[in-house]
Write the C-alpha cells for this entry.
Amino acid sequence: MALAVVGIAPPAGAAPGDHIRVGDAAVLTPSVMSGFEYNSNVYLADGREQNVFGGASWVLKPELQLEFKGNKVQIDFGAGWNLKKFFDFQDDNIELQNADRFTDFNATFGVLALPKSLVGVRLDDRFEVQGQPGELPTAEESALLVHLSNDTNGGLTLRPGSALEFDVLGNVGVDRYTLPESLVGDSGGEANINNRTSYGPVVNGRWRFLPKTSLTGTASVNWTNWENNLVSAIGPEADGVDYGTYIGKPDALAWRTMWGVRGQFTPKLAAGVEVGYGQMYYDETGVIEAGQSLAGSSQEIEIIGDENFARDLTSFSEGFLVNAQLAYSPIRNHKVTFGYRKDFQDAFFTNYVAYNYLFLRYEGIAIQRLGVTGEVTYRIDAFHGEISRDDQNVALKLGGAWSFNDALSAGLSAGWTERACVDPECENGVFYATQYDNFWGLVGATFTY
C-alpha cells in the first residue's frame, strides 16, 4: 500500500528556501537551527540555599511543517525536537551533563474537513514533552523535572449563515509529571509523581459582522481527575512549614465563559478584547478517602483554615477573566504588540493558580535583511491550596537575525528571566528556594529548505 501511494503521488521538488511542494495543495517545510547557548543559572537555583552554576551548551532544533489546503480537507502539522548538550570542563562534583535535554519535543496536528459546508468536522491536537532542571547539580543521572502533556479538541463546526459559525467540541487532556530519580531517593515514592486526566465540552461562536472583524464567545466545562489524590511531600523541607508526609491534590470541576470582539480595525491596528467569568470547585473527599486507605493507617485528614486542599475558586476577583491584545504597525515591517491575560488553571502541586500576565513585543526589520525583536513579560502567580504563595515572573529578551537569503539566516539573542516572591520577606523565608535569576545568550544559524 505504501508503495502504491508513493507511485501515484504528484512529483515534489524545490530549491533551498522554496520549501517542498507536493502538487498544488501541499507544502512541506523542513528547517534546522544549530548554535551555542550560555545560561548563568543552569539549575535555576536561588543563590542562597543552593549555589548557582553557569554552563555552556550546544543546541540543535530540527523542525518540520506541513500545510495541505484542499477543497474538502485542510491539514496543518508541525513537529520540533529541542536537543541541548552541556559542556562540562571542570573536574569537580558538579555533573552538568545531568541537565542535558534529549527528550524535549512538541507536535501539533489540525484537520478541518468540509471547510465551506453547512456542517464541518475539526480535530486539533497538541503534544509536548518539556524538561526543566531541578536544583540537583551533583546528581549522577538526570536532574530534569519532566512534564508530558497532550491536549485534543474535536467535534463539529456548524455554519448556519455565511457570517455565523459555531464549534461544538469535546476536549480531552492528559498530563504526566516525573521527578528526577535522585530527588525521590530512598523516600519510598515514585519518580512518576502524578498523572492528570481532564475532559469536557467546549462551545465556540463567531459572528463576522465586518469583513475582518468578529464578535466571539466561548463556554466550557472541565472535569479534572488525578491518579493520586495524595502525593509524597518530596524535596527539601521549608523552614517553619510542615506539610506532613503527603500533600493533598483533589479532583476538580471548572467552568468558564468569555465574550468579546476581535478584528482588523484599521490597516495599522488589530485588536481583540474578551472578558468573562469562571469558577473551580475541588472535591476534598478523594483526598480524605486516600488518607484513610493508606496501608496500616487509621489517620484522619483534617481540613483546617482557608488555605487547604478544600480551597475552591469562587470569588469574583479571581474568577473574572480578561484576554486582550493590541497590535499596531506604525510603518511597514514594524509591529508593536501589547497583551494582557487574567485567568486561572489547575496546578499540579496545590489546588490552583490565578494569574495576571502582561507582555510587550516589538518585531521589525531594521535594514533590508536584519530582523530585530524585543520582548518584556511580567506575570504574577497566586497559588492557593495546601501550598499557598505569590510569585512574580519577569523576562526580557532581545534578538537580531541576518538573512543571507531565503534559506539561511544567523542570529544572536540574549535575555534575563527571574522568579521572585511578591512578598519582600518571601513568606518569611519559607519559599525562598523556589526563586531564581538566569541570564542567557544564544548564537546560532537556521537553515530552511
